[in-house]
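Fold Annotation — chain and its backbone
Next Lines — sequence and tokenised fold

***
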Amino acid sequence: MSAQPRTARGTRTRARLLAAAEDVFASAGYHDASIVRITEQAGIGLGTFYLYFGGKQEIFDEVVDDLNARVRHAMTEAARAAEDRFDAEREGFRAFFRFTAQHPALYRIIRQAEFVSPGAQRRHYERIVRSYAHGLAAAQDAGEVRPLDPEIAAWALMGMGELIGMRYILWEAGGDGGTGGAPRDIPDHVLDELMALIQRGLAPDAPPSAATSREDVRHD
């Protein structure tokens, strides 16, 4: 269990170690990364590392959790001011794509976690789905979303966002999940197409018109 710092200076030191570890794991990969390399990049003594983390596995898990917390915060803050559920979807996805552009290491580190720390990878996705499903359930209760299983919908929508981000953010920037490639925003037409699919999939069925209802009565 990593130690939480007790001072502002300790908080800054721990944050520098996490930032350095994110870069090293993304560029070198878990197996070629080393604590020495992380501390050198952070400009922090090797002995200081062990005041905060027990070893390479522990700081890797913390990097996954830190990336997860930051991307969820970015999405939540972007969607907070939305006027309705579909505006929240658009702004939340836009924030996810922007975070991906600024932190392409997210993809490579989460892929590594499948083999290095499956529990951390599962925790990453489940935390996103839990928050997403809660928002969908609230929208369903408000009549903004058709009756559906919020958890299944959240997994499906998260998968769409992850692959769209990989195709139109990561690959277009020339990156492979490392630290290279210039950040870029999602193209407008891509976001528009994604939102059209989501809206058609989530929108409640339109109530029958008065004319249609009269026709039904006559046919009865």
About this structure: The CA atoms of residues 153 and 164 lie 17 Å apart. The chain has a mean pLDDT of 90. The chain has ten helices and no strands. The two ends are 69 Å apart (CA to CA).
